[in-house]
Structures are given as structure tokens and as C-alpha cells.
Design brief:
Radius of gyration: 27 Å
CATH topology of the largest domain: Alpha-Beta Plaits
Number of helices: 18
Number of strands: 9
Distance between the termini: 53 Å
CATH class of the largest domain: Alpha Beta
CATH superfamily of the largest domain: Sporulation related repeat
Order of helices and strands: HEHEHHEHEHHEHHHHHHHEHEEHHEH
CATH architecture of the largest domain: 2-Layer Sandwich
Strand content: 5-15%
Structural class: alpha/beta
Helix content: 40-55%
Largest sheet: 5 strands, parallel
Oligomer: single chain
Number of domains: 3
């Protein structure tokens, strides 16, 4: 498969819910937190709706991992059950000693006794019902009756309904209005906007072990957004097949043709013209907002937590030894979009030249097939934008410095094997009265955070004798260089 081709250690776009790949962007994180609060503090019935493939099942799987230990969960995956069967299904999940042929009243009493016992132990029980839009109305009514199980002051059973938008249609029916009035919290998962899709794709790639530059260009992201309609399951399917198509051509550069091939190979391709028309308004809004969101997404990604190395200021030659080891890996970290513990900066310095066997490969899984000259220019531009926009960062880690731009191009391409290249920053300065290029990685709000990141660098990068730099000093150095 394409995993080793892109430097991955596992599949990044499996559609089976994996809580390690939970993406908190696109309002998923806030909805999860709100659900946790509603379950642990609220009363009544909770409703979560969203289109097919929007991430409802992932939320359902995330909740048990985040709920407090005193909350016991019951999961009902088959909605096509009768009112009598739903009671038995819940009793079975709770491992109650109820005969299969027991009458409704007997099962209800057993449930009530069990819930009272759990309540006395300081515990809560919550039932998750998936695909509840397909549940018979009589069964939905039975669930409402279950919500009546209570003490004088507290509900004994929390119920969360996960369903497609058709669930809202069912709840508008007059004969189900009593259930509708019991719903105290309602949440809706909206499709991802174009900028959120960019964050989502790279978050999944990083979580799967990828350390190279962004693989998805703006045009490719736009194409994926249009064909997936912002639904995460479709994004996963398209991205997975597009990576496979790129692998089959032995390239790291994703193009529109790879997206087209992925869409053609997907079942939903037949639906696109019809669905696209019905979502014309949403698509227009998403595309209008894409320019602003994409910029924010890139900026947030550049500010995410990093671990990095540096050479000594004033030396003239980059030290390839810092990246010579064949097996070095950056420290593990959480890749949740929109959060960051450190941010990139800039500095000037160099380190001793490495000996034989320290040459850095100019290509590989980390390079992502990016042209070396383009990569250098992109990092110079990113550094300039960062230094203009960032105001509060205090420290950065300096990697190395060199007088030789060609050598640095090779070094940057190979660095992708060890660190995330989007967090590498480069600026021009003067060392020993010669034009020089300095490479940094990361920026931190305080010295302690910077020292901890420095300590966690791979040993091969520590060979380059990384040092801490103050961002104030970096700015002063650049200003002095420009005025001289």
C-alpha cells in the first residue's frame, strides 16, 4: 500500500471510527464537550443530528472515552426494533437477569431497580441510540417513557438520540410531540467548510505518522470540498483513493486528476449532480468563506506544538550530522486542529560540519516530492509572515545556519524525515561578514517550554548542538542586517 511511500505508520483515512483520529475542528470538539456536560449535568433527552457520513458515529465512540468513570453507557446500534424489543435490548446491554420472554412490565421493573441501585452508588446510566431516524415511532415513544424513570429530584436514565435530519421530520409529527418536548439539548453536525477540510486532512495525516509538507494544495482542497460536500466520510474515501492513485504513479504530489479518479471510483459519484443542486446555497457560502478560513487554518497549523534543534550562532556551515541518522523520530504530540503548545520562530547560527556519512538525502517520504527551491522560498515567506503577525512569542530553538543556499535546499528536503517541515522557519542574515541563512524550528511562550522541547529532540538533531534564541534577539538581528 501507499503507507511507506508517504512515511505513514498506519492508515490515515479509514472510515471505521478510531478515537485516535478524532478531529476537534469544524465545531466537533465543542459539541463533544457540550454533550459531556449535558450528560453529566442535564436532564431529559439529548438529540444529535447530521447528514450521512458527517461524524455522528465518531462522536458516539468518543463519548465513552471522555465521560467520567461514574457514567455507564449502553449502545443501541440497531434501531429497527419494536417497543418490547428495545426494553430487552437495554436490559441485555446492562446484563440484567431478565428472561427473554419476560413481559414489558417485568422488564421495566428490573430496569428501574437496576437504575435505582446505580443511583445509590453515585453512578449514572446513559443510552446511546444510533440511526434513530429509522426507529419506529412506537419505539421512540417507549424511549420517552423510559425517560420517566426518576427519583424525586433526578432522572435515572439519560438518553442520546443520534440520527440523520429525517429524525427532525419524525419529531415534528403531532403524535410524537411529547417526545419532542422532552428534548432538552439539540446539536447538529454541519458539513466541513473548505478551510476545515484542509485542517482535517493534514490532522489525519499527522496522526498517522506523516512529517512532510502539506500534500493538499488549495486547488486540490477546493476539488475535494466540492465533491465531498464537506462530509467527513466522503473526504476520507476521496483522500484514501487519491493517495493510492498518487502512489501508483510514484509521485508525492497530489493533483486534480487523482481526486477525479478517486471520485469516479466512489459510489456517491452518481449522486453529486443531484445533491450539489440541493446544496447550492451551502456550497456558495463555503466557497466565499474559504479564502478567510484557509488563511486562518494555515496560520493555526504553523503555530502548533513543535520539538526542534539548533546550531551555534556565528558559525558558517550547516551541520548535516543533525539529520544523518537513518532512524530518528520527533516526539509524539497531540495533533488536534486549532490547539497549540508552541509556535515557530526564527534565528541565526550554524554548527560544525559533519563527517563522512552525514550527507542528508534530498528526497524521501518526508519531502513529499516538493521542489527544493520552492521549499526554501516557501519557508522564507512563511517566516516573514510569522515575524510580522506574531507578537507574544518569547523563545525559539535554532537548528543550524549556512552560507550555502544549495546545501540548505537539500537539508530542508531531508528534514521532513525527522520533523514537520511546516514548522521549520528560515531567514536571511549575516554571519562572519557573509550572507547567511538560519534555520529554526518552533517558538515558545516561556523558557521552560523551550528547554523541555529542546530536551526531547531526536539525538541525531541534538548532534547539531541546538540552542535557544529569543525572538526579540532574532528580530533585532534581522533589523540590523537589513539596515547594514
Amino acid at each position: 500500500m501507499y503507507y511507506s511511500h508517504f512515511g505513514l505508520n498506519q492508515a490515515p483515512f479509514k472510515i471505521t471510527p478510531n478515537t485516535e483520529f478524532f478531529f476537534s475542528g469544524g465545531n466537533r470538539g465543542p459539541i463533544l464537550e457540550a454533550l459531556i456536560y449535558a450528560i453529566t449535568h442535564g436532564e431529559g433527552i439529548i438529540k444529535v443530528t447530521g447528514e450521512v457520513g458527517s461524524g455522528k458515529t465518531m462522536l458516539c465512540h468518543m463519548l465513552p472515552t471522555r465521560l467520567p468513570a461514574h457514567v455507564e453507557t449502553v449502545y443501541i446500534a440497531n434501531p429497527s426494533v419494536s417497543p418490547e424489543e428495545i426494553l430487552h435490548a437495554i436490559a441485555f446491554e446492562l446484563q440484567l437477569n431478565v428472561a427473554r420472554g419476560a413481559q414489558r412490565l417485568e422488564v421495566t421493573q428490573a430496569l428501574h431497580d437496576f437504575l435505582l441501585k446505580r443511583f445509590a452508588e453515585g453512578k449514572r446510566v446513559v443510552v446511546f441510540v444510533e440511526e434513530s431516524q429509522s426507529m419506529p415511532l412506537a419505539t421512540l415513544e417507549e424511549i420517552r417513557l423510559l425517560s420517566n424513570l426518576e427519583t424525586k429530584n433526578d432522572k435515572l436514565l439519560q438518553i442520546v438520540l443520534f440520527g440523520q435530519p429525517e429524525l427532525d421530520d419524525n419529531l415534528r409529527l403531532p403524535n410524537i410531540r411529547q417526545l419532542r418536548e422532552r428534548i432538552t439539548h439539540s446539536f447538529r453536525l454541519e458539513p466541513l467548510a473548505q478551510g476545515e477540510i484542509r485542517e482535517y486532512l493534514m490532522f489525519r495525516m499527522r496522526a498517522a505518522g506523516y512529517h512532510g509538507p502539506d500534500l493538499f494544495s488549495s486547488s486540490v482542497i477546493k476539488h475535494i470540498a466540492r465533491t465531498s460536500l464537506g462530509l467527513t466520510r466522503r473526504v476520507n474515501l476521496i483522500a484514501d483513493k487519491a493517495l493510492l492513485a498518487a502512489f501508483s504513479e510514484n509521485t508525492h504530489t497530489l493533483k486534480a486528476k487523482h481526486i477525479d479518479a478517486a471520485v469516479r471510483d466512489s459510489e456517491f459519484s452518481q449522486e453529486l449532480p443531484r445533491r450539489a443542486e440541493s446544496r447550492h446555497l451551502w456550497g456558495g457560502i463555503a466557497l466565499v468563506a474559504a479564502g478567510a478560513v484557509a488563511g486562518i487554518a494555515i496560520y493555526a497549523l504553523l503555530q502548533s506544538a513543535v520539538r526542534s534543534p539548533v546550531g551555534e550562532a556565528g558559525t558558517s556551515q550547516a551541520a548535516p550530522a543533525a539529520v544523518a541518522a537513518q532512524k530518528a523520530s520527533p516526539p509524539a504530540r497531540s495533533e488536534q486542529a486549532g490547539t497549540s503548545s508552541a509556535r515557530p520562530a526564527a534565528g541565526s547560527a550554524a554548527s560544525p560540519a559533519g563527517g563522512s556519512g552525514t550527507k542528508l538525502a534530498a528526497s524521501g517520504a518526508g519531502s513529499g516530492g516538493t521542489d527544493a527551491a520552492d521549499l526554501l522560498e516557501s519557508r522564507l515567506k512563511a517566516t516573514h509572515e510569522w515575524l510580522i503577525s506574531e507578537a507574544n512569542t518569547t523563545f525559539s530553538i535554532q537548528l543550524m545556519g549556512t552560507h550555502d543556499p544549495e546545501q540548505l535546499k537539500d537539508l530542508l528536503n531531508g528534514l521532513g524525515k525527522f520533523v514537520e517541515i511546516n514548522k521549520v522557519f528560515v531567514y536571511r542574515t549575516v554571519a562572519r561578514q557573509k550572507p547567511s541563512l538560519t534555520v529554526l524550528y518552533g517558538s515558545f511562550d516561556n523558557r521552560r517550554a523551550a528547554v523541555e522541547a529542546l530536551d526531547k529532540l531526536p539525538e541525531s538533531l541534538k548532534a547539531n548542538r541546538p540552542i535557544l534564541r529569543t525572538v526579540q534577539g532574532i528580530r533585532a538581528e534581522i533589523k540590523q542586517h537589513r539596515s547594514s
